[in-house]
Specification:
mainly beta; 4-stranded antiparallel beta sheet; 1 helix
């Protein structure tokens, strides 16, 4: 890969909605922004926040309707990864231009702060209860935001070339250490999260390819890094590469941390995350462009995976053990710009629902994961492309806190 390629040209697969014109942060500086809410919904747990160009809609999935909106100061916005705090009291969301993080009070449904960060932000992480780490792709750095003061307390250089689209890999089992990826660096970047510095890096075999998606299997202490069209498997005890898998893509860990799903083109590969050999459990073909993999365990113990399509208005329901698609559900359509090489569609799981926005239709689909059926198509606004559930949303790419 051309080492000068930015993340927008590399993959354009941010945690927002569509991959082209990827989301980031915008807005005026100030702490006095108000919402139109009266805070009737108590602590807000169980609600969904849906981010559109001119409004943030608050959705009750049980009723399938918008119960509140935040509109003040919002106009033609682009959004990146939202993250919710460990106590579910605040949502932090990336706002495209100017580069900011907005802080939303989930009890009162209002924006309570705007935090300036570095240019071209896409992803954000919550490695501990006290901090949010927002990545600025133009600089290849993480901006560390204190969740009490809402102030940037550290700027951490992660990319080797001070630029590039990057992510953070962390698990509580890792202690104070973690890893970063960067599409411009052929390496897994070793990060000290207490000292706020990159301490070293693990060189990978193809110097023309960077790193992007990542995952960690706590049972085996193996870390997985997308590296071109391969996946590098790293022993986190020795920080050595132990294997290269001949496929790559978005990686999603099941809530019990025993299954790792990998989106390999139109194939969804399920790996045994308790196997030191990364044993393949099943390969399921989803020809419609699978994305946003989320899991659900039924009352009888069956593990299902929900994946939103990027090339149709549907989502597939996969029986993981059986290794087959058992249902498709209509969830609305997304924009597909002419000539776009990569499409992305976000989705979250929480409260027994799979939730995915349809920016072309201006709706948010609410799917009952037990019934395997869409129970609502909530009207929001054309361009709605990012969602956040208030509560435990499982484990995965934009799932559980860590």
């Amino acid at each position: 890969m051309d080492r000068s390629v930015t993340r927008r040209r590399f993959a354009q697969v941010a945690g927002s909605g569509l991959v082209v014109g990827i989301a980031g942060c915008a807005g005026e500086d100030g702490d006095d922004e108000e919402s139109e809410t009266d805070g009737e919904n108590g602590d807000g747990e169980g609600l969904i926040y849906a981010f559109a160009p001119n409004a943030i809609a608050v959705i009750d999935p049980e009723d399938g309707e918008v119960v509140d909106e935040i509109t003040d100061g919002l106009e033609d916005e682009g959004w990146g990864d939202p993250r919710i705090t460990a106590d579910y009291s605040e949502i932090y969301v990336l706002r495209e231009s100017p580069s900011q993080v907005l802080v939303i009070d989930t009890e009162n449904h209002e924006i309570v702060d705007e935090v300036d960060i570095g240019p071209d932000p896409t992803h954000m992480y919550h490695p501990n209860d006290d901090e949010m780490w927002a990545h600025a792709d133009d600089e290849g750095t993480f901006y560390v935001i204190d969740t009490d003061s809402h102030e940037v307390t550290e700027i951490v250089e992660s990319g080797l070339e001070a630029e590039g689209h990057g992510k953070l890999l962390y698990h509580e089992d890792m202690g104070s250490m973690g890893y970063a990826t960067n599409v411009n660096d052929p390496a897994a970047l070793i990060m000290d999260l207490e000292e706020y510095e990159r301490t070293d890096y693990i060189e990978l075999e193809n110097e023309e390819e960077g790193t992007h998606y990542k995952a960690y299997a706590p049972e085996t202490e193996l870390a997985y890094f997308e590296h071109g069209d391969e996946t590098a498997v790293v022993d986190t005890e020795s920080d050595e590469v132990v294997e290269y898998l001949d496929f790559a893509g978005g990686m999603y860990l099941s809530p019990d941390e025993e299954v790792l799903g990998v989106l390999d083109g139109n194939s969804v590969r399920f790996l045994d995350a308790t196997s030191e050999d990364s044993e393949e459990l099943a390969v399921v073909e989803v020809d419609e462009g699978p994305d946003a993999l989320r899991y659900h365990e039924s009352e009888d113990g069956t593990l299902y995976a929900y994946t939103a399509h990027t090339r149709t208005d549907q989502a597939s329901v996969i029986d993981v053990e059986a290794g087959e698609v058992v249902e498709t559900v209509e969830i609305g359509d997304i924009e597909r710009p002419e000539g776009a090489q990569h499409l992305h569609r976000t989705g979250v799981a929480g409260g027994g629902y799979f939730v995915s926005p349809a920016d072309a239709d201006g709706t948010v689909a609410v799917v009952d994961m037990d019934a395997q059926d869409a129970v609502a198509q909530v009207e929001v606004e054309e361009g709605v492309d990012t969602v956040q559930y208030v509560g435990d949303s499982g484990t995965g790419y934009t799932g559980k806190l860590r």
